[in-house]
Amino acid sequence: MSLAWKLMLAPVLVTQAVTTRRRAPVLPEAEGPRQGRIGSGRNALRLLIAGDSSAAGVGVVHQEQAFAGHLARELHRRVQRPVRWCVHARSGLTTQQVHALLRGQALLRSDLAVVVSGVNDVLELVSPSRAVRHRQLLADWLLAHAGVEHVIFTPLPPMHRFPLLPQPLKRIMGDDARDHNDALARWAATRNDVSVVPIELELAAEHMAHDGFHPGEPVYRHCGEAVAAFIAHRVNPINQRTEA
After folding, report:
1. CB atoms within 10 A of CB 192
2. Entry pTM
3. Are the beta carbons of 111 and 46 closer than 8 angstroms?
4. In which order are the strands placed within the sheet that holds 112-116?
5. In CA terms, which of 12, 30, 239, 243 is 20 to 30 Å from 208?
6. Contact assessment for residue 21 and residue 52, using Cβ atoms and an 8 Å cutoff
């Protein structure tokens, strides 16, 4: 949608955004440990998961039902190696704020980082070009300071299918999410140490949390399995490093 149409619709969009925020229930982050290990033996694949509410598991009760749980289990099954995983995430974070969160943590060295962010960039009106710059800074920092050899970004979900959002706000958010994804894909294509996982989602109400905005377990399962398959087939890390 053009900037002119956005400006014309601005009063409606602001009203809808405020009303939607007020009526949306506040869901907690998933309970349970935010680090663990699946499988025994040496050569564990070390996985860092970082991001916003979707990385934190908002919409389900426990981390086992969340993105991290599904990703770690499916990755272990596919690569036939132990997987040591940890989650650093918080609801409401933009990509820039995810970077700030990680910089303040004592991170374990990891082979791979999976970053789940972007929806809050759209909500906070971060432009696609600025969001890409923030992702570049985050990826470069992970590669330099966390022992990571590859950074994987998940795409923004199809926000035009979020049940909570009314029209025309839903269409505007969906268009912005697509623009962010296009910019992210173009940037990642210039790097050999960064990837974006293609994930197709059908966000019917029954697949979402009851707030109509956050993922439900079917979405977390689908995304976790998609990222695990991508890692196993496309990234296939990481020289079988030896770890006790």
Report:
1. 8
2. 0.91
3. yes
4. 35-38, 83-89, 45-51, 112-116, 150-153, 194-196
5. 12
6. no
Domain ranges of the chain: 38-235
The answer to whether residues 46 and 205 touch, using CB atoms and an 8 Å cutoff, is: no
| One-letter amino acid for residue 243 of the chain | E
Superfamily of domain 38-235: SGNH hydrolase (3.40.50.1110)
pLDDT digits (tens, 9 = 90+) for 29-84: 999 999 999 999 988 999 999 999 999 999 999 999 999 999 999 999 999 999 99
CA distance 174 to 196: 19
Radius of gyration of the chain (CA): 18
**Contact predicate 81/105, CB 8 Å:** no
Kindly report the three-state secondary structure assignment for every residue of the chain.
CCHHHHHHHHHHHHHHHHHHHHHCCCCCCCECCCEEEECCCCCCEEEEEEECHHHHCCCCCEHHHCHHHHHHHHHHHHHCCCEEEEEEECCCCCHHHHHHHHHCCCCCCCCEEEEECCHHHHHCCCCHHHHHHHHHHHHHHHHHHCCCCEEEECCCCCHHHCCCCCCCHHHHHHHHHHHHHHHHHHHHCCCCCEEECCCCCCCCHHHECCCCCCECHHHHHHHHHHHHHHHHHHHCCCCCCCCC
- Minimal CA–CA distance to 30: which of 219, 223, 217, 227? 217
Q: From CA 142, how far away is CA 10, in angstroms rounded?
A: 38
Alpha carbons 155 and 172: distance in angstroms, whole number: 17
